[in-house]
Amino acid sequence: MAMNVAVLGLGYVGTVTAACLAVKDHRVIGVDVDAGKVSALANGRPPVIEPRLDAIVELAVRSDRLSASTVAADAVTDADITVVCVGTPSAIDGSTDLGQLSRAIGEVGDALRGRTRPHTVVIRSTVPPGTISDVVAPLLTQRSGRTLGTDLHVASCPEFLREGSGVADFFDPPFLVIGGEEAAAGAVRELFHFLPCETYHVPLGVAEGLKYSCNAFHALKVAFANELASLYRRLGVDARQVMELFVRDTVLNVSPAYLRPGFAFGGSCLPKDVRSLMYLARSTSTDLPVLDAVLASNDHVVRDLADRVVRRVEELGHNRRVALLGLSFKAATDDLRESPNVALAELLIGKGLELRIHDPVVNPRRLTGANLRQVEARLPHLHRVLYDSPAEAVDGCSVIIVSNAEPAGLGAVAAAGAGCVFDLNGRLGARIEELPGYEGIGW
Question: What is the pTM of this model?
């Protein structure tokens, strides 16, 4: 079904969005404070350079489905939906400047005041999580005189358009993500009904945070590849050939692997090899600031969790007994080498907590080599705090930390009734509903 659409902001995102919606039979009015952009679009010329956009704009304007104005009310008054694509640049302190967004939302609210036509406002601009709830919604309701959830709805719908391929990205996105209540989501689905991708309806904050996550990861990948290239060039290694092979691994390298928020990494490979790269960098006078921060960031995760556990113990005030389910660096192994759980246990004991540990695989009598040396150095009295049964380990504990627990351990957690449960790697799954004191690491 064709909709009347107002698109606020005629930069790259706004112009592509307005033109592409118009050629899909919506009636679109683009709005911008820049009279030059408005004049260009009204005359069938895109105000930005993008492949394929000239023909699309010309077709949309010639068919009377796309027009433009400098006045928001001209577009919003008779619209079913307003798509906000204004700029959200960086302020001097690095924060997001929401000035253009606030002005646009205020104008939308003014245009809606005194009118009864149902309206949905969609924020397509990139904004920090919480912006729609804390800034957009209050301003919109105040200026419009309407109540959200009745004849006024707000949604977040982040865009994933790259300059230079914006049109192609618009018509073939990886997914359509909609944040907000169902009525708003329904309007957005109708607006983008022609897209061939999966649609995900999520909370507002998730939709707002997704674009930042994507762009930060893209930036991280560029920095990662360039840092390795700087080092390998000095070592006489072809970095491009390395990375060509690297991306062929779609099980671990280019995949969802390791991208689930959780606890710190450990084991015999990751810490050792990152340190080795840093040694090579120092030996060749190569700066690798991103990789240099990896181990420090990992250590911070462990220290931060220890501090959070201590605070929760003190808040609960029941006792200082804490259970840790899982000691090795990952499940189904007794490898304690550089396990973050061992580091966490050492910190918690050092903070005066009565720690109880259960790991179904770890047996102090069978530890040898580096595993034994790790325990002797960091947990010399492991045999005193290690329990054979998960039920014994969690009995009477004010806080339970779930790391590598097996099904029996998870059952013991659910039955324990602890004041707080930290789930380090999402092991509890759906059972978190039963645990009012649940705190997810990374959630």
Answer: 0.92
